[in-house]
Specification:
Elements (H helix, E strand, L loop, with lengths): L4 E6 L3 H11 L5 E6 L8 H12 L5 E2 L13 H10 L2 E4 L1
Parallel strand pairs: 1-2, 1-4, 2-3
Length: 92
């Protein structure tokens, strides 16, 4: 099996996007997650899923300027590059 680059775009449900991203690593794929639309809410569920990202060695990125102090920020050109480099894109 060849390793794929999979990017998860967390648009509507950040907790589910984190869960899916962490789960995809079980197949040995390179997984990225980009938080979009709004800042990730500080909830217990999001905290649990963020721990899974850490365990899976996934470093989240964001297009949300309010999160730029905490996560790598992707402007529109950088996001386009991430999408172009990915084998698969998952919107959640």
């Amino acid at each position: 099996m060849t390793t794929k680059i999979i990017t998860v775009l967390g648009r509507d449900n950040h907790a589910e996007a984190m869960r899916v991203a962490a789960g995809l690593t079980i197949y040995g794929h390179e997984v990225r997650i980009v938080f979009m639309s709004e800042a990730v809410a500080e909830t217990e569920e999001n905290a649990k899923q963020a721990e899974l990202l850490e365990l899976a060695d996934i470093i989240p990125e964001t297009t949300v300027s309010e999160m730029a102090d905490d996560l790598p920020f992707l402007d529109s050109a950088a996001l386009a590059q991430v999408i172009n480099e990915s084998d698969h894109i998952i919107n959640i």
